[in-house]
């Protein structure tokens, strides 16, 4: 725990579930400590001036009701003499106190404003810090984490729930400042009449105990609301990304029903949560008003009747009590509010937890380049426990050579390729580069030397230039153009409305499959990778596009170690080694020619493709 509190205090605090669940947020406060402290100080000042105002109001009432009594002093000579004017007439004293009330009221308002503003600033900083922490977590997590999560849920975590958390700070700060105001009120009331105060406190404690059950309901409802929000966001994300499929299947009714269910559930759970939260304040106010009435009757009956309380003090007491009731109501509402955030807080807490998530262990050896070969030694791999996708893969890929992976769909070709940039680590066995375990290399240095060209090239919402030079700094324009030219992409790029400055992706021009692949090839060429993974780079293209791609791939492959996955055997005829996979196992390996002569699996594929052609 980063927050340095004395051990006994933190031990006590850790026993309370609210602290245990939420202390992870407090760690973020160190990034904007000054703002948070200013927010608290301004709010406290606002409360102090509230107390001072009450003091002056009491003074005003006393001077007004008993003008002939000896003037009240506060004990500071210069203040009593020059500000309160104890030697002047009662009317002059009244004016002076009225001016003091006016001044303190305005000072209080100024501090309330400053307090509110700095609290909002602290809230924004907190949301910002939490978003950064979540993103940092995303960056560190292994790919397998993302494959198991729904995009909508993660987006909701980083935006919606981080925002909820932001509001939680506002509420927590309101709890602190209102708590302080309440303290000031209670002290003022004690000063005016301790007996009445004790009775009031007892009544308010009773009220708070009664509300505890309601607050529990608020917390429970918030968990339900978060689950339904996750489902809703995921559903909408899925619809938007899969809208082509929805339209082609004319699945409007089906999707509408799904959406309707999700949005109705969203409404229902949020309404349930709101119903519980919204009850807190009116109930408190109603009960507090009853308490007020009881107190009024008690005060008048017991104290005034028996002459034990001055009318001025009674009026001041009731004035304070009147102001206390809404503060108590606000504190209770804030408390319920804090509890209504518990669902979001819990969801972010779970996401930031580190002990239950897949992280890639980083090595320390800088990967400077491949010298001899990549070796798979008895590698097993499973995405899910007990279901091996790769079994006992032993394979050597020599530097500068092309190794082709062939096999039926689902045989495990892409999985083998994904193990090289360490998207996943083997379940058993080792992958060695020049005799060094892949896991001992610094992952960034390793990945910088590997490029992947696959059929689902991701195009970012930015210019063609930035797409080619993705994540690279200070890239020479001539190098980008050269890469585009070698990738056979220059011509189509120059024909785009703004050439290399044309925006691509959702906000710009949509590229054809072949064009996307050529952008991917240019991207890979610019990086000048040592190891190149080509994953079915030539699928689903017409013969002209395929020729262009094939040519650019040949350019890209020159002098590199290539791992090629292709269903079309024509693209891998020149491979130095062909590895045939079946259900996660290697069934044949050798040169294309050797394997054909052996008349085994590759020969069968070869025959099949020739028959279909
Ligand atoms: N993320 C994943 N989670 C669980 N199982 C997966 C995942 N990705 C792939 N698989 C499974 O692993 C097996 C191998 O898949 P892989 O994509 O490596 O095959 P492939 O030979 O490349 O197939 P294709 O030629 O169709 O792309 C398949 O049975 C597939 O269902």
TrEMBL record:
Where does this polypeptide localize? Cell membrane
Q: Name one Pfam family in it.
A: ABC_membrane
What the entry lists under SMART domains is as follows: AAA
Ranges for the ABC transmembrane type-1 domain?
39-340
Predominant location: membrane
User: In what residue span(s) does the ABC transporter domain sit?
Assistant: 374-608
Name of the protein: ABC transporter related protein
């Amino acid at each position: 725990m980063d927050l340095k509190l004395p051990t006994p205090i933190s031990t006590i605090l850790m026993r309370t579930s609210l602290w245990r669940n939420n202390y992870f947020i407090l760690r973020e406060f160190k990034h904007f400590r000054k703002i948070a402290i200013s927010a608290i100080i301004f709010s406290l000042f606002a409360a102090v001036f509230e107390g001072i105002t009450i003091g002056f109001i009491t003074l005003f009432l006393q001077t007004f009701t008993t003008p002939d009594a000896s003037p009240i002093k506060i004990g500071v000579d210069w203040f009593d003499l020059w500000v309160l004017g104890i030697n002047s007439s009662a009317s002059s004293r009244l004016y002076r106190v009225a001016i003091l009330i006016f001044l303190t009221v305005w000072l209080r308002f100024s501090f309330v404003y400053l307090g509110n503003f700095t609290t909002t600033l602290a809230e924004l900083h907190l949301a910002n810090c939490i978003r950064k922490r979540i993103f940092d977590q995303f960056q560190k997590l292994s790919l397998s984490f993302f494959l198991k999560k729904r995009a909508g849920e993660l987006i909701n975590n980083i935006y919606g729930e981080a925002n909820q958390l932001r509001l939680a700070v506002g509420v927590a700060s309101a709890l602190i400042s209102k708590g302080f105001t309440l303290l000031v009120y209670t002290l003022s009331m004690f000063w005016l009449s301790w007996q009445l105060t004790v009775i009031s406190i007892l009544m308010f404690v009773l009220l708070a105990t009664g509300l505890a059950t309601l607050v529990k309901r608020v917390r429970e409802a918030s968990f339900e609301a978060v689950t339904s929000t996750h489902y809703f966001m995921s559903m909408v994300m899925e619809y938007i990304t899969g809208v082509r499929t929805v339209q082609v299947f004319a699945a409007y009714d089906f999707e509408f029903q799904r959406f309707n269910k999700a949005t109705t559930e969203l409404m229902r759970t949020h309404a349930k949560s709101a119903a519980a939260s919204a009850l807190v304040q009116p109930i408190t106010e109603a009960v507090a008003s009853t308490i007020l009435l009881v107190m009024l009757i008690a005060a008048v009956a017991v104290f005034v009747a028996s002459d034990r309380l001055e009318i001025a003090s009674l009026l001041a007491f009731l004035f304070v009590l009147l102001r206390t009731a809404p503060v108590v109501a606000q504190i209770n509402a804030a408390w319920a509010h804090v509890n209504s955030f518990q669902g979001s807080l819990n969801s972010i807490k779970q996401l930031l937890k580190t002990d239950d998530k897949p992280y890639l262990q980083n090595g320390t050896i800088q990967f400077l380049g491949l010298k001899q070969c990549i070796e798979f030694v008895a590698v097993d791999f499973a995405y899910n426990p007990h279901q091996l996708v790769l079994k006992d893969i032993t394979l050597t890929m020599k530097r500068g050579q092309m190794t082709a992976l062939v096999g039926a769909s689902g045989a495990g070709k892409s999985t083998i390729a994904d193990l090289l940039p360490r998207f996943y680590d083997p379940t058993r066995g080792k992958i060695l580069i020049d005799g060094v375990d892949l896991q001992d290399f610094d992952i960034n240095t390793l990945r910088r030397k590997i490029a992947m060209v696959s059929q689902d090239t991701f195009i970012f919402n930015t210019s063609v230039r930035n797409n080619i030079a993705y994540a690279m700094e200070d890239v020479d324009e001539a190098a980008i153009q050269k890469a585009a030219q070698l990738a056979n992409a220059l011509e189509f790029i120059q024909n785009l409305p703004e050439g290399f400055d044309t925006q691509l992706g959702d906000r710009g021009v949509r590229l054809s499959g072949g064009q996307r692949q050529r952008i991917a090839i240019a991207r890979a060429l610019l990086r000048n990778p040592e190891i190149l993974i080509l994953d079915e780079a030539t699928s689903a293209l017409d013969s002209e596009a395929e020729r262009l791609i094939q040519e650019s791939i040949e350019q890209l492959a020159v002098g590199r170690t290539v791992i090629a996955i292709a269903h079309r055997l024509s693209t891998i005829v020149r491979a130095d080694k062909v590895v045939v996979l079946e259900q996660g196992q290697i069934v044949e390996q050798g040169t294309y020619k050797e394997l054909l002569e052996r008349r085994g699996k590759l020969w069968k594929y070869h025959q099949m493709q020739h028959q279909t052609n």
